[in-house]
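Section handout 9: paired folding examples.
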Amino acid sequence: MNIKIPTFLHEFFGERQNIFQLTVIFLFGVIFTSLLFIYYSNTFSEVALWRNIFAFLLIFDIFSGCIANFTKATSNYYANNKKKQIIFILIHFHLIIVGFLLGTSIWAVTLVWIYTIICAFVIISIRGRNQTFAAGLLLSIGIGGTPMLEMEVYMLIVSMLFMIKVLYSFSVNHYQNRI
C-alpha cells in the first residue's frame, strides 16, 4: 500500500512511498544506529552529549537513506531532476561532520567523502545499464580500499554505509525511469 508523502519529505522518500518500505527504512535506521551507539558506548561516552545527539541524528540519516534511496519512489524522484541530484550530492557533508563531532580520524573520513562525492558525480553522468556496472565497480573499489585507511571501526561502518547511500543507492537509477 502506497501513501502520499508530504511535500517537505519528498527529498527523503519521493512523492508516494510504500508503507512497508517506509517502516523498514525507519526501523533499519533506528536499530542500526542504536546498535552502533550501544556496541561502541565506551567511545561515545567520552564525547559531549550534544555531539552524541547530533552525530546520532546524522548517522540515522545515513543509515536510513542508504535503504530509502533503493526504493522506486525515491529513485524516480531524483532520476527525473538533474538539478536535485546535484544538490543532494553537494549537501552530503554528513560523514565529515560525524567525524568532527566524534573526534575521529578526520583525514581518513575526508578521503572517503571525497571519493564518494566524485564517484557519485561520475555515476549520475552515465546513462543506461552501464551506470549500474560502473557504480558496482566504484563501490567495490571504495569498500575494498576504505578498511586500509586508519579509522575507528564504528567510523568504518558509517563510512561504508555512507558510500553505499550516496555512491550506489542514490546515484544509480535503479528503475531506469528517465525522461
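Moving on to protein 2 of 2.
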Amino acid sequence: MNFDLQPKLENELITIVPLKADDFEKLYAVASDPLIWEQHPNKDRYKREVFENFFQGAMESKGAFIVYDKATSNVVGSSRYYELNE
C-alpha cells in the first residue's frame, strides 16, 4: 500500500487509529460476541482461531484501524481501507 494513513482520525464520538499488533486482545474482546457476526458471511469469526487469521490479514493490509468510543475509551470495532487500483 502506497498511501499514507492518518495517525489519528476523530470526531466528537469516536477516535480511529491505525491497528497495532498489541491491539489483538482489546479487539477480540469485542469480536468474540457471536451476535456481532450473525449476519456476516464469516459467521464463525467470533472463534479465536478464526479471528486470529482475520486480525493477521488486517495487520498485513497496512490499512486497518481500531475504533474507540471517546466517551468510554472502549474499543467498539475496527475498519479497513484499501488503496484504489485504477
